[in-house]
Design brief:
It is a single chain. The protein contains 13 helices and 15 strands. The chain is of the alpha/beta class and 378 residues long. It folds into two domains: 228 residues, Type I PLP-dependent aspartate aminotransferase-like (Major domain) (Aspartate Aminotransferase, domain 2, 3-Layer(aba) Sandwich), CATH 3.40.640.10; 133 residues, Aspartate Aminotransferase, domain 1. The chain has a seven-stranded mixed beta sheet, with helices on both faces. It has a three-stranded antiparallel beta sheet with strand order 7-6-13, with no helix packed on it. Strands 12-14-15 form a three-stranded antiparallel beta sheet. The longest helix is centred in the C-terminal third of the chain and has 26 residues. It is globular, with a radius of gyration of 21 Å. Bound molecules: pyridoxal-5'-phosphate (PLP).
């Protein structure tokens, strides 16, 4: 395994996180318990919604949110073509069919223009608005379309805890929203997810589905699963939530500093933040000129001990799993972004010196790669 000087993601686990988990372990109440419900109430309050239900991860959170809203077999769900695969596979898990929508070249988020084209297709019942990398999707316009066309709007905020659009937290706009608490996320439980909504019935349904479809003890009224979290996860979640704003501020400061160092480099597009948006930089995504240069810079950074990654090298419509299901070519902007994106470290544990090293190494790598690629072409 490569030993990095600077990692791309690092969870922030402090003494208070450790103590909270130990306290639960000592209490003897390890499975679902009161601390889970306390966390759900606190998270709902933080987002500014009425209700919340934790589940095992963000993927099942999205699947159960769609199912609880009434999406199922025969329904089509608009999903951005440029996102983590779970945004689309969640729809398939509950028998629906994703329809891939192109994205905006500045923010990487679902294109409102392409949504307007595709909402007219027969059978479309819902829009999944992914707030990719921590930058909010154009949620106001999407909500207007959803209201106008009588569609459901579900926010996939797996990467956007604490992000805001027009001064309101993402997760508070749709009919329901989901978050992930995977280890790399802005707040974590190791694994975990949550569905939030202002509709009590939606959250009650999710709670039933996550618990074997039980409406009362050993009374199973529909097919359900075990998608519950443990009390250790919830205890960790409570502490992580308390420091989310502080850690997001650090991410924003780090991103702003890195951008100030990179903005003078030719051929590099630094991350965009819309005037109405608060970006929480789960991923700090730059765009480079071509796939050759991007791949070369990625290799060069890695060999210099700085972990970087491509999110995402293959757009969803071109993934073998979807090609095998008969999905055709679509979404030119998404395909172009997959050639250019490179994610650089800005997590809250990084200081100025480390960010300076990231920027200096990046500048050197870029220069070397430009030369290399030029020579390959000649
Ligand atoms: C945009 C997006 N949606 C959904 C998920 C699924 O979350 P999880 O990994 O917790 O299942 C992720 C996870 O990375 C994600 O990035």
């Amino acid at each position: 395994m490569t030993q990095y000087k600077i990692k791309l993601f690092e969870p922030v686990i402090e003494q208070e996180d450790i103590e909270a988990v130990i306290e639960v372990l000592k209490s003897g109440w390890l499975a679902h318990g009161p601390v889970v419900e306390t966390f759900e109430q606190e998270f709902a309050r933080y987002i500014g919604v009425e209700h919340a239900a934790t589940v095992s991860n963000g993927t099942v959170a999205l699947a159960l949110a769609l199912k609880a809203l009434g999406v199922g077999p025969g329904d089509r769900v608009l999903v951005p073509d440029y996102t983590f695969i779970a945004s689309a596979t969640a729809a398939i898990m509950i028998g629906a069919t994703p329809v891939f929508v192109d994205v905006d070249s500045k923010t990487f988020n679902i294109s409102v223009d392409d949504v307007l084209q595709k909402v007219e297709e027969p059978g479309v019942k819902a829009i999944v608005a992914v707030h990719l990398f921590g930058h909010p999707a154009e949620i106001k316009a999407l909500k207007e379309i959803a209201t106008d066309k009588r569609l459901l709007l579900v926010e996939d905020a797996a990467q956007a805890h604490g992000a805001e659009a027009w001064g309101k937290k993402v997760g508070s706009f749709g009919d329901a929203a989901i978050f992930s608490f995977y280890a790399t996320k802005n707040m974590t439980m190791g694994e975990g997810g949550i569905v939030v909504s202002n509709e009590k019935s939606v959250i009650e349904k999710v709670k039933m589905l996550r618990n074997h479809g039980q409406s009362a003890r050993y009374l199973h009224v529909e097919l359900g699963w075990n998608f519950r979290i443990t009390s250790m996860q919830a205890a960790l979640g409570r502490v992580q939530l308390r420091k989310l704003d502080r850690l997001n501020d650090l991410r924003r400061q780090n991103a702003s500093y890195l951008s100030s160092l990179l903005s003078r480099l030719e051929g590099v597009e630094i991350p965009y933040e819309a005037p109405w948006a608060k970006h929480v930089y789960h991923v700090y995504a730059v765009k480079l000129g071509t796939r050759n240069i991007r791949d070369c810079v990625q290799k060069c950074m890695t060999s210099n001990g700085i972990e970087v990654a491509v999110h995402y090298p293959i757009p969803l419509h071109a993934q073998p799993v979807f090609r095998n299901m008969g999905y055709a070519e679509c979404c030119p902007t998404s395909s172009a972004l997959a050639e250019k994106e490179l994610s650089l470290p800005v997590h809250p544990k990084l200081g100025r010196e480390e960010l300076k090293l990231v920027a200096e190494t990046f500048a050197k790598c870029l220069e070397r790669c430009r030369e290399e690629v030029k020579q390959q072409i000649q």
